[in-house]
């Protein structure tokens, strides 16, 4: 074995002897509850908190608060205890207090599901009939006339009908009416 390998092994033996985790026992029920909460948050390797964890943080802050105000030094303590940033703790507290002020049930759940993902713009497809036939013969000219991207026209038409109809299929009725009108004119003149 090399000297470097021996040094690494010696260092690993030292780490085994002095554990990174302190093994203290507490008799108080509050400290037992706090250590259980800490254990559930310490192993958290996810980026986002679950709604249950957020509610636990809010109840912890509420229990430790004094008349609805967070005690000095409680936010950093909670941040360290629950392995999240102080900004997250403050955001959860603020969200819970806003619910209480409005006399609503406390809801500190994540707002992420409503704020992320694709946003779909509603568009009135009846405007297509108002566009002259020569400007809606293909997707490019139709998109330009509607002032929306070509991909949006394609995606929305595909979503609405299950297939992208060709412009000939869309304007068949207009062509049929025009043909009938012209044939009537020819017949009478």
From TrEMBL:
Annotated InterPro entries: DUF7769
Region forming the signal peptide: none
Limits of the DUF7769 domain: 49-102
Coiled coil start-end: none
Ranges where the record places region Disordered: 1-35
Composition bias type Acidic residues, residue spans: 1-17
TM region positions: none
Protein name: DUF7769 domain-containing protein
Organism encoding this protein: Papaver nudicaule (Iceland poppy)
């Amino acid at each position: 074995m090399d000297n470097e390998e021996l040094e690494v092994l010696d260092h690993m033996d030292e780490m085994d002897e002095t554990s990174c985790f302190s093994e203290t026992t507490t008799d108080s029920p509050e400290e037992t509850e706090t250590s259980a909460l800490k254990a559930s948050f310490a192993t958290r390797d996810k980026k986002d908190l679950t709604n249950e964890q957020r509610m636990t943080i809010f109840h912890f802050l509420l229990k430790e608060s004094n008349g609805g105000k967070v005690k000095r030094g409680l936010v950093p303590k909670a941040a360290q205890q629950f392995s999240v940033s102080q900004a997250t703790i403050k955001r959860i507290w603020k969200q819970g207090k806003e619910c209480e002020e409005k006399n609503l049930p406390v809801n500190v759940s994540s707002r992420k599901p409503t704020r992320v993902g694709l946003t779909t713009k509603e568009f009135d497809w009846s405007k297509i009939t108002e566009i002259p036939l020569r400007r809606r013969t293909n997707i490019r000219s139709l998109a330009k006339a509607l002032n929306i991207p070509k991909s949006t026209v394609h995606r929305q038409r595909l979503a609405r009908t299950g297939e992208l109809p060709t412009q000939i299929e869309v304007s068949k009725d207009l062509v049929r009416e025009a043909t009938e009108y012209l044939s009537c004119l020819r017949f009478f003149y």
